[in-house]
Amino acid sequence: MVNGRSYAWALAILVGLVPAARAQVRPDPGAPAAAVARLFPADARIGLVDFTRVAAVSTSGKAMSARIEALRSRKEAEVNARSKDVAALESKLQSAAVLNAAAREQLRRQFERAQVDFQRFTQDAQSEVQQVQREVEQAFLEKARPAVAEVAKERSLWAVLSMGDSGLVWWEPALDLSDEIAKRIDASPAP
User: Fold this and answer.
1) Tens of pLDDT along 60-73?
2) What does the pLDDT look like over 129-169, one tens digit per residue?
3) Where would I find the beta strands (DSSP E) of the chain?
4) Can you give the pTM of this predicted structure?
5) Cα distance from N-terminal residue to C-terminal residue, the chain
6) Do 153 and 181 meet the contact criterion of CB atoms below 8 Å apart?
7) More confident residue, 97 or 2
8) Nearest 5°: phi and psi at 42?
Protein backbone atom coordinates (compact mmCIF):
# COMPACT_ATOMS: atom_id res chain seq x y z
CA MET A 1 0.00 0.00 0.00
CA VAL A 2 1.30 3.46 -0.93
CA ASN A 3 0.79 6.24 1.60
CA GLY A 4 -0.51 9.66 0.51
CA ARG A 5 2.86 11.37 0.87
CA SER A 6 4.67 8.82 -1.31
CA TYR A 7 1.89 8.99 -3.87
CA ALA A 8 2.11 12.81 -3.98
CA TRP A 9 5.86 12.65 -4.53
CA ALA A 10 5.46 10.05 -7.25
CA LEU A 11 2.86 12.23 -8.94
CA ALA A 12 5.06 15.34 -8.64
CA ILE A 13 8.01 13.47 -10.14
CA LEU A 14 5.78 12.11 -12.89
CA VAL A 15 4.55 15.54 -13.99
CA GLY A 16 8.05 17.01 -13.70
CA LEU A 17 7.45 19.49 -10.90
CA VAL A 18 10.17 17.90 -8.79
CA PRO A 19 13.14 16.18 -10.38
CA ALA A 20 13.62 12.54 -9.32
CA ALA A 21 17.02 13.34 -7.83
CA ARG A 22 15.41 15.78 -5.37
CA ALA A 23 12.69 13.34 -4.34
CA GLN A 24 15.10 11.51 -2.06
CA VAL A 25 16.20 14.66 -0.18
CA ARG A 26 13.61 15.39 2.51
CA PRO A 27 14.02 18.03 5.19
CA ASP A 28 13.30 17.08 8.74
CA PRO A 29 9.75 18.32 9.55
CA GLY A 30 11.05 19.50 12.93
CA ALA A 31 13.93 21.44 11.39
CA PRO A 32 13.91 25.23 11.72
CA ALA A 33 12.42 27.10 8.78
CA ALA A 34 15.84 28.56 7.94
CA ALA A 35 17.25 25.05 7.46
CA VAL A 36 14.35 24.13 5.21
CA ALA A 37 14.77 27.35 3.20
CA ARG A 38 18.37 26.35 2.34
CA LEU A 39 17.03 23.18 0.77
CA PHE A 40 14.85 24.99 -1.75
CA PRO A 41 15.50 23.04 -4.94
CA ALA A 42 17.42 25.16 -7.44
CA ASP A 43 15.51 23.56 -10.31
CA ALA A 44 12.05 23.95 -8.76
CA ARG A 45 9.59 26.02 -10.80
CA ILE A 46 6.83 26.35 -8.20
CA GLY A 47 7.12 28.08 -4.84
CA LEU A 48 4.71 28.33 -1.94
CA VAL A 49 3.97 31.08 0.55
CA ASP A 50 1.96 30.97 3.76
CA PHE A 51 0.77 34.56 4.22
CA THR A 52 -0.46 33.78 7.73
CA ARG A 53 3.07 32.86 8.73
CA VAL A 54 4.55 35.80 6.82
CA ALA A 55 2.25 38.12 8.76
CA ALA A 56 3.17 36.41 12.04
CA VAL A 57 6.94 36.75 11.58
CA SER A 58 7.35 40.00 9.65
CA THR A 59 7.51 43.41 11.32
CA SER A 60 4.75 44.73 9.04
CA GLY A 61 2.54 41.74 9.81
CA LYS A 62 3.05 42.15 13.54
CA ALA A 63 2.15 45.84 13.26
CA MET A 64 -0.97 44.87 11.29
CA SER A 65 -1.99 42.38 13.98
CA ALA A 66 -1.34 44.91 16.75
CA ARG A 67 -3.49 47.53 15.00
CA ILE A 68 -6.38 45.10 14.59
CA GLU A 69 -6.05 43.83 18.17
CA ALA A 70 -5.99 47.40 19.55
CA LEU A 71 -9.19 48.24 17.69
CA ARG A 72 -10.79 44.97 18.79
CA SER A 73 -9.87 45.64 22.43
CA ARG A 74 -11.18 49.22 22.27
CA LYS A 75 -14.48 48.09 20.74
CA GLU A 76 -14.78 45.28 23.27
CA ALA A 77 -14.34 47.77 26.12
CA GLU A 78 -17.00 50.04 24.59
CA VAL A 79 -19.40 47.10 24.19
CA ASN A 80 -18.78 46.04 27.80
CA ALA A 81 -19.47 49.59 29.05
CA ARG A 82 -22.74 49.74 27.13
CA SER A 83 -23.66 46.27 28.35
CA LYS A 84 -23.26 47.47 31.93
CA ASP A 85 -25.51 50.46 31.17
CA VAL A 86 -28.22 48.15 29.79
CA ALA A 87 -27.85 45.83 32.79
CA ALA A 88 -28.20 48.80 35.15
CA LEU A 89 -31.41 49.86 33.41
CA GLU A 90 -32.73 46.30 33.62
CA SER A 91 -31.93 46.16 37.32
CA LYS A 92 -33.62 49.51 37.83
CA LEU A 93 -36.69 48.26 35.95
CA GLN A 94 -36.89 45.10 38.07
CA SER A 95 -36.71 47.07 41.29
CA ALA A 96 -39.21 49.68 40.12
CA ALA A 97 -42.23 48.08 41.75
CA VAL A 98 -42.78 51.21 43.83
CA LEU A 99 -43.07 53.47 40.75
CA ASN A 100 -46.44 54.45 39.37
CA ALA A 101 -47.58 52.83 36.12
CA ALA A 102 -46.58 55.78 33.87
CA ALA A 103 -43.05 56.00 35.31
CA ARG A 104 -42.64 52.22 35.09
CA GLU A 105 -43.78 52.26 31.42
CA GLN A 106 -41.34 55.07 30.61
CA LEU A 107 -38.49 53.13 32.25
CA ARG A 108 -39.49 49.97 30.31
CA ARG A 109 -39.37 51.89 26.99
CA GLN A 110 -36.04 53.40 27.92
CA PHE A 111 -34.71 49.89 28.67
CA GLU A 112 -36.01 48.51 25.35
CA ARG A 113 -34.42 51.41 23.43
CA ALA A 114 -31.15 50.81 25.27
CA GLN A 115 -31.29 47.12 24.33
CA VAL A 116 -31.88 47.91 20.65
CA ASP A 117 -29.13 50.56 20.69
CA PHE A 118 -26.78 48.07 22.35
CA GLN A 119 -27.48 45.41 19.71
CA ARG A 120 -26.92 47.92 16.90
CA PHE A 121 -23.75 49.21 18.53
CA THR A 122 -22.43 45.65 18.92
CA GLN A 123 -23.15 44.87 15.25
CA ASP A 124 -21.56 48.14 14.13
CA ALA A 125 -18.48 47.45 16.26
CA GLN A 126 -18.11 43.97 14.75
CA SER A 127 -18.55 45.36 11.25
CA GLU A 128 -15.98 48.08 11.87
CA VAL A 129 -13.40 45.59 13.16
CA GLN A 130 -14.03 43.28 10.19
CA GLN A 131 -13.77 46.18 7.72
CA VAL A 132 -10.51 47.44 9.21
CA GLN A 133 -9.17 43.87 9.25
CA ARG A 134 -9.98 43.46 5.54
CA GLU A 135 -8.37 46.82 4.70
CA VAL A 136 -5.22 46.11 6.71
CA GLU A 137 -4.90 42.59 5.28
CA GLN A 138 -5.34 43.94 1.75
CA ALA A 139 -2.66 46.58 2.37
CA PHE A 140 -0.34 43.89 3.73
CA LEU A 141 -0.91 41.66 0.69
CA GLU A 142 -0.20 44.60 -1.61
CA LYS A 143 3.06 45.19 0.25
CA ALA A 144 3.89 41.48 -0.01
CA ARG A 145 3.29 41.19 -3.77
CA PRO A 146 6.55 42.94 -4.80
CA ALA A 147 8.52 40.74 -2.38
CA VAL A 148 6.89 37.62 -3.84
CA ALA A 149 7.65 38.85 -7.38
CA GLU A 150 11.31 39.53 -6.50
CA VAL A 151 11.80 36.07 -5.01
CA ALA A 152 9.99 34.42 -7.93
CA LYS A 153 12.13 36.25 -10.51
CA GLU A 154 15.38 35.53 -8.66
CA ARG A 155 14.56 31.84 -8.48
CA SER A 156 13.08 31.70 -12.03
CA LEU A 157 9.79 30.35 -10.72
CA TRP A 158 6.78 29.86 -12.93
CA ALA A 159 4.33 30.36 -10.08
CA VAL A 160 4.10 31.05 -6.37
CA LEU A 161 0.98 29.65 -4.75
CA SER A 162 -0.64 30.86 -1.56
CA MET A 163 -0.85 27.89 0.77
CA GLY A 164 -3.99 29.28 2.37
CA ASP A 165 -6.16 29.41 -0.73
CA SER A 166 -4.57 27.08 -3.25
CA GLY A 167 -6.29 23.91 -2.14
CA LEU A 168 -2.94 22.26 -1.41
CA VAL A 169 -3.29 18.98 0.40
CA TRP A 170 0.40 18.16 0.59
CA TRP A 171 3.60 20.00 -0.32
CA GLU A 172 7.33 19.65 0.04
CA PRO A 173 8.35 21.95 2.91
CA ALA A 174 11.47 23.01 1.01
CA LEU A 175 9.22 24.82 -1.51
CA ASP A 176 7.94 27.17 1.21
CA LEU A 177 9.25 30.70 0.62
CA SER A 178 7.36 32.33 3.51
CA ASP A 179 10.36 33.22 5.68
CA GLU A 180 12.31 34.63 2.75
CA ILE A 181 9.32 36.75 1.71
CA ALA A 182 8.85 37.99 5.29
CA LYS A 183 12.49 39.14 5.32
CA ARG A 184 12.01 40.93 2.00
CA ILE A 185 8.93 42.71 3.30
CA ASP A 186 10.84 43.85 6.38
CA ALA A 187 13.71 45.06 4.20
CA SER A 188 11.45 47.03 1.86
CA PRO A 189 11.01 50.76 2.49
CA ALA A 190 7.82 51.87 4.22
CA PRO A 191 5.23 53.32 1.82
Assistant:
1) 999 999 999 999 99
2) 999 999 999 999 999 999 999 999 999 999 999 998 878 88
3) 46-49, 159-162
4) 0.67
5) 54
6) no
7) 97
8) -60, -30
Residue 76 scores a pLDDT above 90: yes
Residue 93 has pLDDT above 90, yes or no: no
Dihedral sign, CA of 140, 146, 147, 148? positive
3-class SS of residue 81? helix
Q: Is 111 helix (H, G, I), strand (E, B) or coil?
A: helix
Q: Are the C-beta atoms of residues 37 and 151 closer than 8 Å to each other? A: no
Q: In this structure, which amino acid lies at residue 45?
A: R
Q: Is the four-CA dihedral 48, 53, 59, 62 of positive or negative sign? A: positive
3-state secondary structure (DSSP) of residue 29: coil
- Residue 78 CB neighbour total at 10 angstroms: 13
- The tally of CA atoms less than 13 A away on the side-chain side of residue 50 is 12
CB-based burial of residue 16 (10 Å sphere; 0-12 exposed, 13-18 middle, 19+ buried)?
A: exposed
